[in-house]
Amino acid sequence: MTRKPAPGAGEGMSGRNAPEPTFYLFDGHNLLYAGKFADPRELEDKLASFVALRGARGIVVFDGVGTAHTLGPLEVRFAEVADYALERLAAELRDRERVCLVSSDLTVRETSGKEVDKRSSQIFIQELGETKLPPPPRMAIEDRLDAKTRAKLERIRRGEE
Q: How many CB atoms lie within 10 A of CB 78?
């Protein structure tokens, strides 16, 4: 039985007509350089916010050694070769999650499977830049004042004080 590719699984497609991915796999160093981040922690914070805002989860994998840790819905991992780790994770997750793999490495994207949505690091950085937190709810000033202060201001307004 041959599987049909998931809608939006093509390169650079945001899948706007397809359901949002539930799991993101990020090639850490690709994104670090594509986004011109000064520090990996800055990238990690942005990615953690990105997946959290979408109600998804994610793993960012960096080449080399480091201490694995978690930032909310984002796991930060290190591997001798991040590409191999990303390929393995995509294969493990693609049958039970809607996966999006973010990497500039064409080989990694091609070997991740037809079921996986793929984005280059450069395209994803543009999407990441568009991610904004919703504005805080507006609160009228009278809602921020205690009853005693509101009563005094009302008396002043009426010329009673």
A: 16
